[in-house]
Amino acid sequence: MTTLSSNSVLRKTAGITLSKPVQVTLYMLLSSLVIWTVFFSTYPAAHSTTHSLRHHTLGVACH
Predict the structure, then answer these.
(1) CA-CA distances (angstroms) from residue 39 to 9, 14, 27, 31, 32?
(2) Please, what is the average pLDDT of the chain?
(3) Which ranges in the chain belong to alpha helices (H)?
(4) pTM for the full model?
(5) In sequence order, which residues have a C-beta less than 8 Å from that of residue 26 and are 6 or more positions away?
(6) How many Cα atoms are found within 13 Å in the side-chain-facing hemisphere of 49?
(7) Of 6, 16, 23, 52, which shows the fewest CB atoms inside 10 Å?
């Protein structure tokens, strides 16, 4: 009975597990959301740091 139940659990887990392309897509979307949120934050400490970083590394003029 243990073998039957462990096979059942493995099948359910395999069915739930996301494929690599889906995992990569979700990771990229989450990473992009975090970066976008930090770069355009109105929180003074985060904004000042990323604002300076943008100017020094990307050469972006925004004012």
Answers:
(1) 43, 38, 18, 12, 10
(2) 77
(3) 2-16, 20-39, 44-53
(4) 0.50
(5) 18
(6) 7
(7) 16
